Amino acid sequence: MRKILVLLLLLGVSVYSQQNPTSSDKVKQALVQKRAMVKNSLVKNIPFTNIGPTVMSGRVVDIDVNPINTIEFYVAYASGGLWHTKNNGNTFTPVMDNTDTQNIGDIAVDWKNNTIWVGTGENNSSRSSYAGIGILKSTDGGKNWENVGLYDSHHIGRVLINPNNPNEVIVGALGHLYSPNNERGIYKTTDGGKSWKRVLFINDNTGIIDIQPAPNNFNVLYAASWERDRKAWNFTGNGKNSAIYKSEDGGNSWKKISDNSGFPQGEGVGRIGLAVFDENTVYASHDSQFRRKQEGKKKSSTNALTKEDFKTMSVDEFLALSDKKLNSYLKMNGFQEKYRAENVKQMVRAGSVKPIDLAKYLENANSLLFDTPVVGAEVFKTTNGGKSWKKTHEGYLDDLYYSYGYYFGEIRVDPQDKNGIYILGVPILKSKDGGKTFTSISRENVHADHQALWVNSKVQGHLIDGNDGGLNVSYDDGESWLKLNTPPVGQFYAVYADNQKPYNVYGGLQDNGVWTATNNARISKAWHQSGKNPYESIMGGDGMQVQVDNRNADVVYTGYQFGNYFRINRETGRQKYIQPKHNLGESPYRFNWQTPILLSAHNQDILYLGGNKLHRSLNQGNDWETISADLTQGGKKGNVAYGTLTTISESPFQFGLIYTGSDDGLVHITKNGGGSWEVISNSLPKDLWVSRVIASKHKKERVYVTLNGYRWDDFTSYVYVSDDFGKTWKNIGTSIPNSPVNVIKEDPEKSELLYVGTDNGLYMSLDGGNSWEIFNKNLPNVAVHDLVIQLEAKELVVGTHGRSLYKANVASLQELTKEVKSKENHIFSIENIRKGRFWGNSWSKWLKPNTPEFKIPFYVNGDKKVTIDIYDDDVKVNSLTVNAEKGINEAMFDVSFDEKGLKAFKKAKKEAILSKAKNGKTYLPKGKYTVRLGKEKKTFEIK
């Protein structure tokens, strides 16, 4: 016992507590609780509006096409729900917005009976692959849904319907991503989902990623198992239990067929994809994590140094290099100006730097994704039903999977050509000789990362491709593609709103860069006519956080994954790379996938950027100083950057009063600009991802913290507040239904008004977090990653990871006080409106008339029918009857006279000149008007 204690003490900060995954029973309870909250929410009638973008989409995971009518199909997005088209993708309709989740792994459609099966929980195992809630089924084309089980499967690899018996369904369950669990393997139902039988189980860490039937014999099935284990600091996407199985009795029993057959075996076997041409002919794609054989050093065509040279170079060999040759390496690889041959050699002589440090200086988590020397993508084929397998190609399929083949793993065979296959990765490859040779069929309007492919079984060359950027269709076997992006399904990591009029929104998207547009941009196909989409791309890669100089909105700070940030001048088009760099010989800084940045509210030349240490620039990122030691637990051995800062906040009350949060559970404070730091998270749950730390805008001592257990499969809602700089904490998240929390925002006008975004929706509190209301009109149950409030517009902008951006006006929330809630009725402030010359008219009889919409926000203390009257002085000009619900409501007024009001107005104001619009309505003239609801009244003006 004493030895164990000593060992734990020696390990120190590297000891991590084990969080408990949330049980499926608690998940079910949370969903029941949430549905009840929807019915009773005081804000259920404040609408959200989706503001795009649609031009850049989100990750597609599956496509199911009507075999009789191929212009009708369903598209499943990883975290954006299920969409249906009947016109070949010209328009889409979401059909899962009334369900408890938008997260999908696979779908299957029984077209004859209009029945849809959805396996929820994404099948890719990326850092933002969200868990599902089992199997959903609709028997009416998506109007209504029923959960038919497998709640704890979390991620579904494949769903198959027996074409001869629609009640017989086979499911491949991957299981939890971040923890072992039992509900994984192959499941079968013969009664339409009323009951399930597990017909294959391997172990608690191995699930099923793919199942494919023989086209004309559903009794013959092939399946791929996948052993995987993800942690915040490491992903192992391979293992000896990854293998191929076969069933010859419709999935009732299974036999492993990949052992001793020519197919790879052992710890290096990664994700496997299957494509079945007939009962005996099967292709298998394999993400091989076995290491490549050591090859002799290739002779370079130039004499230039590479980083590999320094990894084995001795001190003497280094000092013998010519200054010219060394300087060439240093300049070509972007070393800072202070590192030139003469002084670097002096550092090596002094022993402060080793030759290998010149290689390490260039390595980071992003480059290692591409540098790791694994075998990577392979294609195998059997022609005898799996008795033997043979690799189809010589050598390596380079530049397809890199080291992250776990993210792809799909292969297809042309049903009309047993030698025609397609393998999906970066890019998409086609072979017409059974996999001996390949050509790329990616094109300029197709995203690089490919996830799903449908191949027409009757018309050769007709393909529908699902990728990280949306959907494409080809009719010439991939020689050219059309883009079908109309659904707003962008996967945002971050959102920002500037102070321009109208204000601009900015956001970073998963694998789709950073985009910006005015908040009121028209999201339609009109841009096809003008040639310019309202959204503009300003950065590639995985788009990350954005900060905009409030003195000059052309100066934008943003970047891509792992802390690669730039200062952009949008007026001149110039970009300057501004990532802080460690000193040669020091350990490289660690940067999170979503590295945090922050412009100081006290001086817009001052920029903060968090690695594992906090860096500060006093001159817009041109130079950096490190103002902390390591503010994490020190990192952890693994292949994912960890032990990094995730959030930064500076108090608006005091320059240098700064908080940081890390991915390993630490929250720090400094009150002197980094002169000294203190840990303030010791009483909080340990080792969880600090998703936000926010210094209050209303009270100097107040700070909010949210923790996220997603990477432990812990879905508890962790939300805390402190009123003493973090010395003590109050848990204010207990009444939020279980779902990992990504963001908290304090309203800038009202201190008690809080907003929280979770992996399953948005909540708000009117009392500082003592109680919460769900905030979701027009907003589906989607992951909310970020929130921003535009001060002057009084609008909340929501960055979702799956359904692009939304906004809602929150002015009435800011006015909703205890006094208001105690009243029978209340009218909130009403915005003025500008008179339109063309109200009720259009320039062509074939176009809809221009009709104004005017919102009258009001509160009632119970469900009831109310009458809202509009007066010009003492003349009632219109009257609205509204079926109001307890809480905040919005009455829509078209700013016209009703029949009685028009007569009364003409009688009272005979000198008024009024004219009827083409739509038959007479609109109110310019002037001031009063809105009355019972004893309450408010005025507005038509200008």
Question: What's the gist of this structure?
Answer:
By secondary structure, this protein is mainly beta.
Fold blueprint:
Blueprint: H1 2-11, H2 24-40, E1 49-50, E2 60-65, E3 73-77, E4 81-85, E5 93-94, E6 104-110, E7 115-120, E8 135-138, E9 146-147, E10 156-162, E11 165-173, E12 185-189, E13 197-200, E14 206-214, E15 217-227, E16 229-230, E17 235-236, E18 243-247, E19 255-256, E20 272-276, E21 282-291, H3 307-311, H4 315-319, H5 323-332, H6 341-350, H7 357-360, H8 365-371, E22 374-382, E23 390-391, E24 411-414, E25 417-424, E26 428-431, E27 439-440, E28 450-455, E29 463-467, E30 470-474, E31 482-483, E32 492-497, E33 504-509, E34 513-518, H9 527-530, E35 536-539, E36 547-548, E37 555-560, E38 564-569, E39 574-577, E40 597-599, E41 607-610, E42 614-617, E43 625-626, E44 645-650, E45 658-662, E46 667-670, E47 678-679, E48 689-695, E49 703-708, E50 718-722, E51 730-731, E52 741-746, E53 754-758, E54 761-765, E55 773-774, E56 784-790, E57 795-800, E58 805-809, H10 811-815, H11 818-822, E59 825-827, E60 854-860, E61 864-872, E62 875-884, E63 887-893, H12 899-908, E64 927-933, E65 936-942
Antiparallel strand pairs: 1-58, 2-3, 3-4, 4-5, 6-7, 7-8, 8-9, 10-11, 11-12, 12-13, 14-15, 15-18, 16-17, 18-19, 20-21, 21-22, 22-23, 24-25, 25-26, 26-27, 28-29, 29-30, 30-31, 32-33, 33-34, 34-35, 36-37, 37-38, 38-39, 40-41, 41-42, 42-43, 44-45, 45-46, 46-47, 48-49, 49-50, 50-51, 52-53, 53-54, ...
Which ranges are low-confidence, i.e. pLDDT below 50, for 5 or more consecutive residues?
1-15
Rg of Cα set: 30 Å
The average pLDDT is 94
Main sheet attributes: strand count, strand direction, barrel closure: 4 strands, antiparallel
Count up the helices.
Answer: 12
